[in-house]
Amino acid sequence: MSPKPQLPYVGIRTFMKRPYQADWTTIDADIAVLGAPFDYGTAVRPGARFGPSAIREASQMHSALNGHYDPDEDKVFLDPAEIRIVDLGDVPMIHFDAMQCIDNIREAVESVAASGAFLLVLGGDHSVHAPCIEGFRASGHNSIHIVHLDAHLDYVDERMGVRYGQGNPLRRAAELPFVSGITHIGIRGVGSSGPDDFRDARATKSRIVTMKEFRRIGVQAALAQIPEEAVVYFTVDIDGFDASLVPGTGTPSYGGLTYDDGIEIVSQVAMTRRCIGMDFVELAPVLDASGASALFASQFLTTSLCQIFRPGTPTWKALQG
Q1: What is the per-residue pLDDT for 133?
Q2: What is the pLDDT at residue 1?
Q3: Contact call for residues 239 and 150 (beta carbons, < 8 A)
Q4: What is the pTM assigned to this prediction?
């Protein structure tokens, strides 16, 4: 038989066609991909539970198994001989038991954090961020700085008794003692949080860079307050990007980040800070029949990993011991 073809429509749908690993107790990888198909926290339009499978399907277009060549830089990134990526599949979801699902996500992340692998979570609505960041409690990182790309602040404390919905995750993250700060970028328009939430955020650990301010000051100034000693975790809501680019989300918002804005933010952070994880949330593929939003997500994540694991970055150096 001839070698197995690597065409996008052939094979098992793991992220970028990388190996599937079923055993989460013996993770041996540099990057571990985890699906969190949870959208019980959605307040308006559901469908993000199908985000992980849509991103994996779209990632077949970005499955260069010999690495990813960038013609602008004349470099190959994510060479499998140097960077090992595994797909751990999805966290088990329990029908009608949202808090058990949240606990399952946290426990799965704890396994990845204990292994030392970079965590890539495919959401899911934004409520999955809270258990993701909580999963680093025992990781030994005492100063985690969250870089949050979003149209909405997601800093509601409690609404109708709900503390773990899609409007709460950054408030829950700020309450964790090992989270030293949060930089919110892209905030704009009518959002999920009111004036009190913005005041609370600014009074504690948050720097809020609205979209208009971001356009005025640029990437470097937006990221200027990340402490040198901190490691960085990204939480990326797809509605942080302009809705004309990614309509497949429950709360699309116009006037947002471009693809290049998002990559430049990740790149600038990665050049000077060690990065330990990222969750990408709120892709609802049923709301974009063209599949363009899923392709956007896949390319953004693939290129982000290329930047984070670029030779010479603090994250890459950490792999070298």
Answers
A1: 98
A2: 57
A3: yes
A4: 0.97
